[in-house]
């Protein structure tokens, strides 16, 4: 159990945690990454697998992480150690916390580069230097923005600085206040872009691309990407949600909170898809354009719509804010660990983390200019950071979390902590014991080419069977056990 002498700080308002967790979840992952990987992996089928991963794997993992945080009241390392010790299990499991902390840190080191793009586009909009009417013009603007390491480095450094200033000040100030107006603002901007898209001539194609299921377009690699992105977009297995959960007051419902965050996050991602793909199809762009996709497409829409400059400015303000509310959550685990264990003040913890981060992020930033040729297996340093965290560390961390929550801990621990009614509790248990871990393993094995069945075609069946097995198992086994042990 929590053993700190001083009570841990908690979120201020009733909505504090929901706002902060939504602020962490909704970010560049929804607006920058989701559209571009959906484009790369072929659209509808990828989207469907992603949605399944969010609700079948993501939500149960999120509930477990929040429960770990609130029960253990500490950084991922300390919280996991306390909770497993409470069940009489080995502290070795806190390695999961170490991995999560490292993962959040590595993500942030490439995230600041992308957030830097958003800030620099805001600047371009403000100064009226974002001109051009064709896809080629926009590709040239994006290219030129990346080509100069001093320019790109300036923006990523700025994001790092702002992040560390906010983190140094503490969790409540800043986060709770800003997410409340930023989220509706972002949604309004996206709605505006969607309405514009409806008149652009590309809307039908966009809807078809996003929502028509074509199993042939889905690869094993794409399925792993969808799974990894579900973790990324919900800020899981990276210390963010778990640490935020450690500030959650007793009594708040973990289940309801997780589902609301997941729904809000998914809604923003789908809206971003509906805002961006019409522009892409109307302008004959390639949806698989890569990481520059939104920066090459959206400015074209702003260029063409009435009051476009104003809306463009507002959009990039919201996007930059959304990026910041996510980036601060990525270092919260590290900072909280340094404060609790190493006697750092929040400010000094934030600045020391910031310096190391700046060094790695600068190397990541160079992947777009002088270091473009420093590749390993065809991937730049920036690509590697993204690949290792999303494809491997987060799914593995998620697997560890559900195994821990489902099998290692005493059942009472999380039954208490989650405070669910019997049926939802059984559902959660079935998910963390069978459906989520098997789902993760099956996708991994598929990506590693372990078997020859094409999972991309058969996964809906498999998922159905898993869910049924899990639920019947959980419903039957306690009764069976009781029947066998009582006479
Ligand atoms: N969920 C954030 C986004 O979608 C990214 C993130 C990942 C935040 C991991 C915290 C931890 O932009």
Automatic annotation (TrEMBL):
It is found in: Membrane. Keywords: Membrane, Symport, Transmembrane, Transmembrane helix, Transport. Its main location: membrane. CDD domains: SLC6sbd_Tyt1-Like. One of its GO terms (molecular function) is symporter activity. The chain crosses the membrane at residues 12-32, 44-63, 95-119, 152-171, 183-203, 223-247, 259-281, 301-328, 349-372, 392-409, 430-453, 459-477. The keyword Nucleus does not apply. It is a multi-pass membrane protein. Pfam families: SNF (PF00209). The keyword Membrane applies. One of its GO terms (cellular component) is membrane. Belongs to the sodium:neurotransmitter symporter (SNF) (TC 2.A.22) family. This is Transporter. It comes from Vreelandella nanhaiensis.
């Amino acid at each position: 159990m929590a053993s700190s002498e001083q009570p841990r700080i908690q979120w201020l308002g009733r909505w504090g945690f929901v706002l902060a967790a939504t602020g962490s979840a909704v970010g560049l992952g929804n607006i920058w990454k989701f559209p571009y990987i959906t484009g790369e992996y072929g659209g509808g089928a990828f989207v469907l697998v992603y949605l399944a991963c969010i609700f079948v794997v993501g939500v149960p993992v999120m509930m477990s992480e929040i429960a770990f945080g609130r029960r253990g009241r500490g950084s991922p390392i300390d919280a996991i150690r306390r909770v497993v010790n409470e069940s009489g299990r080995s502290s070795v499991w806190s390695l999961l916390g170490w991995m999560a902390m490292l993962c959040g840190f590595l993500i942030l080191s490439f995230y600041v580069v992308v957030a830097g793009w958003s800030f620099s586009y805001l600047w371009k909009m403000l100064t009226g230097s974002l001109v051009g009417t064709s896809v080629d013009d926009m590709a040239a603007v994006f290219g030129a923005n990346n080509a100069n390491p001093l320019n790109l480095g300036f923006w990523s450094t700025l994001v790092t600085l702002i992040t560390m200033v906010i983190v140094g000040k503490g969790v409540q100030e800043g986060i709770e206040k800003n997410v409340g107006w930023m989220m509706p603002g972002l949604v309004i901007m996206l709605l505006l872009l969607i309405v514009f898209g409806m008149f652009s001539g590309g809307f039908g194609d966009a809807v078809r691309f996003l929502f028509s299921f074509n199993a042939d377009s889905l690869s094993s690699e794409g399925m792993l990407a969808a799974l990894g992105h579900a973790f990324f977009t919900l800020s899981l297995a990276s210390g963010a949600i778990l640490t935020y959960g450690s500030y959650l007051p007793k009594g708040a419902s973990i289940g309801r909170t997780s589902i609301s965050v997941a729904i809000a996050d998914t809604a923003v991602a789908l809206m971003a898809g509906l805002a961006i793909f019409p522009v892409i199809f109307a302008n004959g762009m390639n949806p698989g354009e890569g990481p520059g996709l939104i920066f090459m497409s959206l400015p074209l829409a702003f260029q063409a719509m009435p009051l476009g400059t104003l809306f463009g400015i507002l959009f990039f303000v919201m996007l930059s804010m959304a990026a910041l509310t996510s980036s601060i959550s990525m270092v919260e685990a590290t900072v909280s660990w340094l404060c609790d264990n190493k006697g750092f003040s929040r400010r000094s913890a934030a600045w020391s983390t910031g310096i190391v981060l700046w060094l790695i992020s600068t190397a990541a930033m160079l992947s777009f200019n002088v270091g473009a040729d420093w590749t390993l297996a065809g991937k730049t340093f920036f690509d590697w950071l993204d690949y290792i965290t999303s494809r491997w560390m987060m799914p593995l961390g998620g697997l560890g979390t559900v195994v821990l929550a489902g099998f290692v801990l005493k059942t009472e621990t999380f039954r208490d902590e989650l405070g669910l009614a019997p049926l939802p509790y059984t559902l959660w248990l079935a998910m963390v014991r069978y459906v989520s871990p098997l789902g993760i393993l099956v996708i991994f094995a598929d990506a590693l080419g372990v078997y020859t069945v094409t999972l991309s075609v058969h996964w809906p069946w498999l998922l159905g069977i898993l869910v049924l097995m899990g639920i019947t198992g959980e419903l039957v086994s306690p009764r069976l056990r009781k029947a066998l042990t009582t006479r």
